[in-house]
Structures are given as structure tokens and as C-alpha cells.
Specification:
Elements: H1 2-12, E1 17-20, H2 21-27, E2 37-41, H3 45-57, E3 61-62, H4 68-73, H5 75-82, E4 86-91, E5 94-102, E6 112-117, E7 120-125, H6 127-137, H7 140-152
Parallel strand pairs: 2-5
Antiparallel strand pairs: 1-2, 3-4, 4-5, 6-7
Helix pairs in contact: 1-3, 6-7
Length: about 150
């Protein structure tokens, strides 16, 4: 399972993370289908480099030709001028395996809870912070997620 492989590799590389997005919605108990797995990490150069190494270790490659050092150095420019908020990784041998690292959020500003999935402990964004993040995004799917999460909170 991709989620397990990613979390184990992030842990191995000592990347501070929290799971967000559709998988987090589902782990909190709302019905939600999604393909990509979204994470927020610590916004510092060391974490970007470690996350890149962790994902490379399990065969994932960045979708865009940009490496951790460059992305960290020009992060604000990517967000502001290129509307890039996710550093996307894909498995070239299985295109259904997609992991996004959100570059506009810092894990240090988010609360997490630990959920167990098939014996693996995973740090997941708190429902309240997930609702806040999804309201801020305001995409139609995110607003539907907010409704579902508010019923659980």
C-alpha cells in the first residue's frame, strides 16, 4: 500500500509530516475517494531534501524537473507567480501512485492526531485544522469535505 510505504520512508528519513487532503478526510471517518496522497512537512531546506530522498527511496520522482534545494529557495516565487502549491511526485512505473507535498503550509503550525492503519501509526491533521485548510482552499470538493467533517466534529 502506497500510504504505508510513504509514511515508513518519511519516518526513516526523519521527516516531520502530517497527512492532509482526501486521505485525512477518510481517516477521520468521512466517506471520500481520492487518488493522490497529500502531506505537509516542515518548511525548511533540510526537510525538503529529506522528503525528496524518502520519496526517491520508494521509486517516486518529481513531476516537474525541480529538486529540493531549488524548490525551497524559490518556494515563494513558485507559489506567487506559478500558482504552485504542491510539489508532486509520481511513480513512473505506476502512474496511479501520486504523492503531493504542500509547499504553502508548515507542519509546525498544524495540530496532528495519530491514527493506526493496518498496524502503522500515521500522523494525520486534526479535524479542526483540516476544516480550516479546506475552507481556505474553497475548491468545490474541499467545501464538500468541510460539510462532511463538520458533521463529525
Amino acid at each position: 500500500m502506497l500510504l504505508h510505504r510513504v509514511v515508513e520512508s518519511l519516518n526513516k528519513h526523519k521527516v516531520r509530516y502530517t497527512l492532509v487532503g482526501g486521505y485525512a478526510v477518510s481517516l477521520h471517518g468521512a466517506i471520500r475517494g481520492t487518488v493522490d496522497i497529500d502531506f505537509v512537512i516542515q518548511l525548511d531546506k533540510k526537510s525538503f531534501i529529506a522528503a525528496e530522498a524518502a520519496l526517491a527511496d520508494i521509486g517516486l520522482k518529481p513531476r516537474l524537473p525541480v529538486v529540493a534545494n531549488e524548490l525551497f529557495e524559490f518556494r515563494e516565487e513558485y507559489i506567487k507567480n506559478r500558482n504552485l502549491i504542491a510539489w508532486s511526485f509520481i511513480n513512473p512505473t505506476n502512474l496511479a501512485e501520486v504523492v503531493d507535498i504542500l509547499i504553502n503550509e508548515d507542519v509546525r503550525k498544524l495540530r496532528s492526531v495519530t491514527k493506526e492503519v493496518s498496524g502503522l501509526k500515521i500522523k494525520v491533521i486534526s479535524i479542526d485544522d483540516l476544516i480550516t485548510m479546506k475552507k481556505k482552499s474553497a475548491r468545490p470538493q474541499d467545501l464538500e469535505d468541510v460539510k462532511a467533517l463538520e458533521q463529525l466534529a
